[in-house]
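Repro:
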Amino acid sequence: MHGPPLVGWLLVVLCAATGAYCLTRTGAGTATEARATGGDALMGLGMAVMAIPTAVLNTRPWGAPVFAIVFGAAGLRSLLVARGRMEGPHLHHLHHAVGAFAMVYMALAMAGAPASGHSGHAGTGTGHVEGHVPAGTPLLTGLLLVYFAVYVVRTVAALVPVVAVTSGEAVWPGRPNLTNACRLSMGIGMLAMLLTL
């Protein structure tokens, strides 16, 4: 991954923990929910591997084709599952498709970026990155950033408890769904990966 190694390691921890949690939840719920959670697990673990700084794991030349095949297949599968149904878990499969194709895009963009010795770039120690040539197409990167920013804001709104008032009494909803918190962390992770592209 391009960018500072600390950012890469933070993303590795966040995405690996999220992917592992989703992996443990794949057996719970209906078959459709299990497929959605399985897609979340694949995305989280794949993001963790992709976020490992290049000084530790240089995925050239095998990384881009492997990521493209795995996430391209996952994206196509998500599109097939979601086709014609735009509600509930099926709508989440469309999000999986966008995420999978974003992973393919990032893998191919990073493979085409010029190689350098230290995690993608040379830093000055002041937080400014010297000689950084953005990988990928700025328009597509921008569109993906907007999509994931909107997704993060919508997921935060879904996590905020809403108080229902019935006949003068406040009724608090139950605990927030941890799966939504995991999806929020993966959305934030995707934003960070796109920003360091």
